[in-house]
Amino acid sequence: MASPGKRLATDGLPQRVTICEVGPRDGLQNEPAPVASADKIRFCDMLSDAGVPMLEATSFVSPKHVPQMADAAEVYGAIRKDPGRTYVVLVPNERRMDRALEAGVRAVGVFTAASEAFAQANIRTSVDRSVETFSGVVRRAKDVGMFVRASVSTAFGCPFQGAVDVADVVRVCRQLLAIGVDELSVADTIGVGTPNQVFDVVDALRDVVPLERLNLHFHDTRGTALANILAGLQCGVSRFDASAGGLGGCPFAPGATGNVATEDVVYLLNGMGIETGIDLDELRAATRFMSERLGRQPASRAYAALEASAARSRSASPAR
Amino acid sequence: MASPGKRLATDGLPQRVTICEVGPRDGLQNEPAPVASADKIRFCDMLSDAGVPMLEATSFVSPKHVPQMADAAEVYGAIRKDPGRTYVVLVPNERRMDRALEAGVRAVGVFTAASEAFAQANIRTSVDRSVETFSGVVRRAKDVGMFVRASVSTAFGCPFQGAVDVADVVRVCRQLLAIGVDELSVADTIGVGTPNQVFDVVDALRDVVPLERLNLHFHDTRGTALANILAGLQCGVSRFDASAGGLGGCPFAPGATGNVATEDVVYLLNGMGIETGIDLDELRAATRFMSERLGRQPASRAYAALEASAARSRSASPAR
Hints:
- 2 copies of one chain form a homodimer.
- The first copy, chain A, has helices spanning 4-10, 23-29, 37-50, 72-78, 94-102, 116-122, 127-143, 166-178, 195-205, 225-234, 262-271, 280-294, 301-316, and strands at residues 18-21, 54-59, 86-90, 107-113, 147-153, 183-187, 214-217, 239-242.
- By secondary structure, chain A is α/β, with parallel strands linked by helices.
- In chain A, helix 3 packs antiparallel against helix 12 (280-294), helix 8 (166-178) packs across helix 9 and helix 9 (195-205) runs parallel beside helix 10.
- At the A-B interface, helix 1, helix 9, helix 10, helix 11 and helix 13 of A face helix 1, helix 9, helix 10, helix 11 and helix 13 of B.
């Protein structure tokens, strides 16, 4: 008997998922402790070793406002840039775009919000105005053949205004596509979303953007990230952001979890037979490296289970 | 346009879910620190206050093997037993059944495994033999009109033998139904399962047991519990185990997460508009009470986010 469950499990799910690893940028930018440039570089290279297809490497933003990213040019210049992987750098405006171009950046990210209240608080401008600002960045990026990614924050809820209308998500996505971005990353910035919202948001975007250009970015603040990713897969989405070891915390709830951990996402996808190209053991090594530098345990459940299991194997085979 | 995602979100999902709260038994039994009987009793009563429809209250097992549950009769006797809620007590054999009957227990749980290797290691008998042992317990329970629940461990993977054949899950479920149990709780004891397995297992059980008598029990060891619950809902399952604050840890991976946290499950279901009858604030109070007694933070992401949010509200409104 072909039940609804069975059909879901076997039909129509993407066979391959492209994970954008955001740990080095979105993750480290939200870490209170400063990280040495050399460690950032090593971390990026270990993530390349692990096989991440896309990496948010750093951010060319104001060193005054975001001191964690003051070494953007140095880090970008030094990291290994494997052919076939995309190394994204965030750029807020044309002035910073000049620096990114000087640094030889090949892929940029811009970021706005679905919620007007969040845009005002976080990037100190209106949503419309932010898209206007980016249009120059995007035009120049496309002129030199760059890949452009646009993040839409608070698409599932806003820390200031609460609920966010799906129509507002659609509106800003249309604007961003109109100025020429290649990929949309639609984000649950505060981790409030549940799968029904994923179905609603993706359904509303289905006629706006081809699904192969839509990425979803979930936070695991309330434990729902993997359920939301499952919902995204069932809608046909095959691009997801994730952060090694769940790096990044949650800026709106101190002590709470932020970005979904790449280990958890890869574990889920491996179990479902969906390819990511990421080696979980090498990813774990990258996460271990950075968590030792930060002096705290990663917020990844799969990481903790893998480490515990590796420790058991070691103690069971002392000769190896 | 009716997309597959949208159909899933709106059609066929259960409108109401029955959560069986396993914190006081499955949770506390796996805690290394001893808990005072009075605190266990208070915890159960707070969970009743929170509205849990079913509560695994304690376990009438050997005090020598499970000292944490040595006060089973005292705890069961003292907890408030609200009409309309089911207070389940675990019973491993007929000798312990005598004690449960003396204590006036009205609902019992028995437990075996889908994996032969796990049954041998954990309950020191074969799967078949364990069902034989339970047949006497179940017969006596049904004779006095008790509700009987049977847990099937390691249905999604075994720490000793690895993969577990779905046919083995079906086999033991058939045996348990044949001896007369009312509800089956099919468990991912080590938290290795992914949604595709949920679809497979539930599909295989669909013709064996009416879905309204099937409960799923997930561990969040690798972060997949809520994704698995979503898959279960999509298969039509409406009964899930969960543990307040994720109490219980993971006996096979020290430091790793065990039972999925009730707060996370209720948050997910609230978001999806699915009724549980559980008040998240009262549940949080119960979890806070027990976590203070245990001297550690709960392993619940929704709990952490709710606490952080409550702390912000308090500091923003000092007058209240």
